TrEMBL record:
This is Probable beta-glucosidase G. Its EC number is 3.2.1.21. GO terms for biological process: glucan catabolic process. The lineage of its organism: Eukaryota, Fungi, Fungi incertae sedis, Mucoromycota, Mucoromycotina. Beta-glucosidases are one of a number of cellulolytic enzymes involved in the degradation of cellulosic biomass. Catalyzes the last step releasing glucose from the inhibitory cellobiose.
Amino acid sequence: MQQYGILVTCWILLLVNNVIVTIAVDERSWIESYEIARSIVETMTIDEKVQLTISTNGPCTGNTAKTSRFPALCLNDGPMGVRGSKKTSVFTSGINAAASFDRELIYQRGVNIAQEFYDKGINVWLGPANDLLRNPRAGRNWEAFGEDPVLSGITTVETIKGAQSQGVIATVKHYTANNQETYRKHMSSNIDERTLHELYLWPFQRAVEAEVGAIMCGYNKVNDVYACENEELLTHDLREEMGFKGWVMSDWGATHSTAKAANAGLDMEMNLGRGNYYGDKLKTAVERGQVSLQTLNNMVERIVATFYKVGQDQNFPEVQVNTNIPVISGALLDPGVDVQRNHKEGIRKMGAASTILLRNRNNILPIRGDKLHERQIVVAGSDAGAGVLPPNSCPLNMCPDGSIAMGGGSGSAHYPYLITPLEGITERAKNEFIEVKAILQDTSLVSDVLTIVSTTVSAPDTCIVFGSAFAAEGIDRPFYGVDPQHLLIINHISNVCENTIVVIHSGAPIDLPFANHPNVKAIVWAGYPGQESGHALADILFGDINPSARLPFTIAKNYDDYPSDISLFEHEVSYKEKLLLGYRWFDAKGIDPLFEFGFGLSYTTFSYNDLQVQVLDKEHVEALISVRNIGQTSGAEVVQAYLSFPENAGEPPKVLRGFEKVFLEQDEEKIVSFQLLKTELSIWDTNTHTWIIPSPGQYTLHIGASSRDIRASAPFSL
Ligand code: NOJ
């Protein structure tokens, strides 16, 4: 293939015959990439062009056919790592990445995930997902980045930048308002224009600014038009308003028409095997004048240009997977090139950085041994250990057993191994002279639990009990709570063990009815942490790493406190809470959550001093605050900036506009700065259909340690 001009060179690693070598990849501008694409597409026949808009049979989740002028593309799931292939990693989930509030680690996670796709010869990563968490029961919350558009936007951007720096095309999905699994292929998300822009389009707009290569439109309808043939969304909002330059592919089977979809702005139909509406049907539509040749050329140019933009014409590896075979998982026919590198280190790091300490009464954590007297602790619950079925027992992780570290569906990957909490804790406890006793049966009799707990010799005795909520694509969770048998063991343990630490594996907010039990001294949310689950958890429990994660969603006291539900009777879902999603609703209605958005404890404490807010010009406000570690150990604080708009702007009481994670040694102080530019200062105006800065009026900037723990506020006017 012809080599084209070079703009920026970055270095990446390539696996040749299982040896990692470093090569240079050339990044191009969109302008240059489109010039190349045009010169190629004008030499293609119409048959070659339509081939590129459709899936064919092949080794990956999605495959385009090779033509004389352009290679075949391999598109593969998914957000937690390479789906359906061996010798790959199971990374931390999207919801964990968001919980870390750590830009650097999020970027590095994107790099590491993409390296595995690259090494397997996969051109297009079908991730990240950035659907907003609208309801706690939605089956796919764990794949994406939580309830707040700004947190989701920043997490999306860092992930994409990391991934695309490795020469892999990232795909943000599912465009848009794809927030439940119930009736996912038919339901309509009915949203007003302002809410759509300020919440559901926001993370996609940030992705476009980060030059994402591909966007996947969702199964659902938006305002009664299928997302994948919705001209308003695909052409008007995405291309004209946001300036998206890459291509739009449909979710698998989410295309419903030929001319309508093509004219609306859908570039590629994806489906199992061959598509139903593009390919030959698209050719006929062009010949009949229902779709113009120019439209077809534009569709194909977008795909080709994106390929050149990320430099995939330069030594991109051959496809090394065969993930699209109907398999009984564990018996994959994949050639199995080992692409794991040292990614387990990053997975463990992100696992610990995303484990949230929600409660820590009497400083029961971190667990410390007493070198003179051997202690014993109890680890309880089926979610603590290995299941009867080994990991990867069912396709797409749909029969979870034992500890939950990932969800199910296309967003799952193949475990190379799973370090269970019991393994991680036992290994680490040895160094502290602590013996671990396990009760892995959730249904263990109360009397048995009592005997084991009362015969431990620790002083004070400590029990770590586990509960989880498994969630998967295709089905929303039926209730807001841990799986019922887990509740049983949590109740047994907390009734008999004076010092109970509850650890939760869930991908979303979860009912914690035991939170105020006097024996429940600590609560830890570990999310879906991936293959290094037990190690990452032990790092936090034993204080090797100081917890610094924060809630990317609101945990309500009662499910009914949330503004939305998922109903079995509704295909037309009204987003009637409008802008009041998540904490915005709780703030506006004065409802106290159990644990608020942005909340998380540390083993140290921080003070905030001297907030200074300066209006630099009409579209630029700068805030500086000094943060000091006033506790007994080093640690990281997530400093959060919330904005209250002038009252007549019609905004929620306050909205997140930025955050910084700062690492501070004991007694160290740092100045943290926030820049609020037009994006942060604007609201969507439905009269002019543009972003406007509502002025004049008084704004207030709040800096805090969570959405309910504001440490300093300062007014300003524009
Ligand atoms: C359907 C899922 O919604 C999507 O996220 C995934 O990428 C495709 N299937 C392909 O597996």
